[in-house]
Amino acid sequence: MTASGQIGRELEAVLPKERIVADTAARRAYDSDAYPIDRHPPDAVVLPETTEEVSRLVRWCVEQSIPYTPRGAGTGLSGGAMAARGGIVISTKRLTRIFEVDAANRMMHAQSGVPNLRLSQAAAPFGLHFAPDPSSQSVCTLGGNIAENSGGPHTLKYGVTYPHILQVVLVDPSGEVWTIGSRSGRAPGPDFLSLIVGGEGTLGIVTEAWVRLTPTPQCVETALVAFPSVRQATECVSAIVSSGVIPAALEMMDKGIIGALRAAFGLQYPDGSEALLLVECDGNDPERIADELATVESISQANGALELRRAQSEAERKDLWKARKKGIGAMGRLAPSIVTHDGVIPRSRLPEMLDFVYQVAAEHDIGVANLFHAGDGNLHPCMYFDDRDPLQVEAVIAAGEAIIARCVELGGSVSGEHGIGVEKSTLLESMFGPDDMRLQRIAREIFNEGDLCNPCKVIPNQKGCVEHRRRSRGVAW
Ligand SMILES: Cc1cc2nc3c(=O)[nH]c(=O)nc-3n(C[C@H](O)[C@H](O)[C@H](O)COP(=O)(O)OP(=O)(O)OC[C@H]3O[C@@H](n4cnc5c(N)ncnc54)[C@H](O)[C@@H]3O)c2cc1C
Q: Is 115's C-beta closer than 6 angstroms to any atom of ligand 1?
């Protein structure tokens, strides 16, 4: 019997057989997340339904010294849900209960495998929604959002995931169950919840959470603005935010995305469009929102906009959002693989940074298109390539590292929302000094990190991680 067959059989002592998957096809399906460069199959995938089952599984892994990796929908873009050292993937696919919508107190209690969009759908009848909205929201899970401290198009106004999480139930790396945070939103003492949110599944497995719900604005105005150059579009972003208008969303797509959208879906934009800005303003006062959009329109004109299309109905609004929501899908036609890089810079540096991104991609002979949260200065250069060609893989890694290095030089960050995972574990030290790194290691020890819970992620410190890296990238850390 293979090692994975053996582990699968032994797991039957912990969980019913039908919730253990160890066949070759399933193991291959779980060998990466949406970061295609690092792959490793788990020995088995398990599908618990309760906190108690997760705790039992973790205790079993600890007893057997088997590494385990928490996984939601696997849409992560930094390799976080990939089983770098094999072992067990603990999937939250069946942790999908919404226990309660407490509309009076604007809270919801749900299991961590609930897809993001379902949270907002459940809150909608009460005029509420869950504000964090990654573009993957129809599938990505609450647990994944918490682990990555995810953002989304509306982060500019509503913030990333952390301020929307009140309390979590965590199974720590030894299997012990903790309730962390407070439903009142006020917990005295050190803020342990802020370590869990953004912990990338290295501090334990979140099984349930109480999330904050946000009133859904009554008035939303959306416009798509076309520009003849990326520079004019990026300068316009700074000008809009400096004017005092804080749009709910301020997203940018460049000509690579425009071309892919035309080819894939026949979407039409004005001739000569090299960049698009999607601008959304929301609130409860229609006059104020109309004023804000009028300000956006005049700033866009001053920055050379070719056209501003303003949605006149909900259907038109959805049409304008297609440019943003279908962009990555459209790129699927350009090449077999895409790596979506993620870095942050002060938004006033966007014009020079975009020039740099195009230059680096050209130097490495890699195709690049950009669609990103421009209002936050959160870049997403999307590199398209063939991951079966080792030279192209090397080029994508090198280009990504050069871009992230420039983000740090400009006073930004190595990650805005996709996390560190395995992708950037060697880059963290370019942003943090030895003292910061030491504190991060100590923070892990608080949760009894050991070396089994999501190994090789964020701060790799084991021999097995070096081997994984060598195997998947042909290089050592
Ligand atoms: C097309 C596309 C668009 C995207 N757009 C955005 C965007 O706009 N903004 C954004 O921030 N991200 C975006 N992402 C990235 C990704 O969707 C988010 O990071 C998302 O939150 C991951 O959720 P998931 O359920 O897929 O998590 P997974 O990919 O399964 O896991 C991500 C990480 O979380 C850990 N994890 C998962 N569940 C748990 C849990 N219950 N407890 C502890 N750890 C856990 C995993 O170990 C892993 O480290 C996008 C991805 C794609 C493919």
A: no
